[in-house]
Amino acid sequence: MNLTIRLSHCGGPDVLRAEQAAIPAPAAGEVLLRHTAIGVNFIDTYYRSGLYPLPLPSGLGSEAAGVVAAVGDGVSHLQVGDRVAYAGGAQGAYSQYRTLPAALLVKLPDDIADDTAACVMLQGMTVEYLIRRTYAVEAGQTVLWHAAAGGVGQIAVQWLSSLGVNVIGTVGSADKAAIALRLGCKQVINYREEDVVARVRELTGGRGVPVVYDSVGKDTFEMSLDSLAPRGMLVSFGNASGAVPPFAPLLLSQKGSLFFTRPKLGDYVATRAELETSAEALFERIRAGAVKVQPSARYALADAAQAHADLEARRTTGSLILLP
């Protein structure tokens, strides 16, 4: 049988239910994957809560590592026993087994562990496209990264620091400040105790930063805009505090001819070539020791609701995984 986590309606973590189902068979172009480790990401809570619409009933989760258990007709680049990982596609990673289009899967190098892959594919490839393609950050620049001690933030701080970028990180506690500094932030601002905009202006000689990376959303939107230098870019890639409120485009002009973008990973790995290039760039940074990622907490698959509760309550730092 196949233990899977599903929801029939949206709401809090308690809507997640563990169910038993038959192990599916792969169709043409698909593989059957036996999961070994499953990533838990903040975007999963958006689908569960209803912030992002999801046809119900549904599975949940979009990132995992595993072993190919069977292949469907027409699949030639993968075979039974291959270690693979993925990020994206239809919801349903919270399960022991699942079928997926073979085109979504990336072979794992021998030197990338399953639990590392399960907590780095989505967040790591997100960092890759944000800092290399949404806004191509250059050595010597200073950037502002909100939630610097979170899962995406920890990868970003390490990656950017390895490139010679000065990272100003925001955090919500002294413990998280210590984490962000240890990983490479040049300066850390505790938003609960300090005026973020004033501190950013102080640290940049009054000019502001060329780019702000903001996964928090509603609570940080205005401070993010006000921290930018003229013609700077606000990259809004998450809604941890709620969605950014509607605003008039004229606001961007008034604050210095600013740019605003709301990207998502799927549009940056839309082709097989883009997917493989993004994953390989991430694996290279891990191999080089520039990005070190290990799950900060492990939960049994059946305890997915507790993982969500801890994540939303900010009781965790870094990445979480579920173990089937």
Rg measurement, Å: 20 Å
| Secondary structure category | alpha/beta
**Percent in helix:** 25-40%
- Sequence stretches where pLDDT stays below 50 over 5 or more residues: none
Distance between the termini: 12 Å
- Sheet-strand content, in percent, reads 25-35%
DSSP helical segment count: 10
GO cellular component, one term: cytosol
Domain Enoyl reductase (ER): 11-322
Keywords: NADP, Oxidoreductase
GO molecular function, one term: zinc ion binding
Q: Could you explain the architecture of this structure?
A:
The structure is a single chain. The longest helix has 16 residues, at 272-287. Strands 3, 5, 6, 7, 8, 15 and 16 form a seven-stranded mixed β-sheet that branches. The protein has a six-stranded parallel β-sheet with strand order 11-10-9-12-13-14, with helices on both faces. The protein has a three-stranded antiparallel β-sheet with strand order 2-1-4, with no helix packed on it. The protein has helices at residues 42-49, 114-118, 121-134, 151-162, 174-183, 196-203, 221-226, 250-254, 272-287, 304-312; strands at residues 2-7, 17-21, 30-40, 58-59, 63-71, 83-87, 97-101, 106-107, 142-145, 166-171, 187-190, 209-214, 228-236, 259-261, 297-300, 320-323. It folds into two domains: 2-119 and 294-323, Medium-chain alcohol dehydrogenases, catalytic domain (Quinone Oxidoreductase, Chain A, domain 1), CATH 3.90.180.10; 126-265, Rossmann fold, CATH 3.40.50. The protein has 324 residues and is α/β, with parallel strands linked by helices. Helix 3 crosses helix 4 and helix 3 crosses helix 9 (272-287). It starts with a strand and ends with a strand. The radius of gyration is 20 Å and the shape is globular.
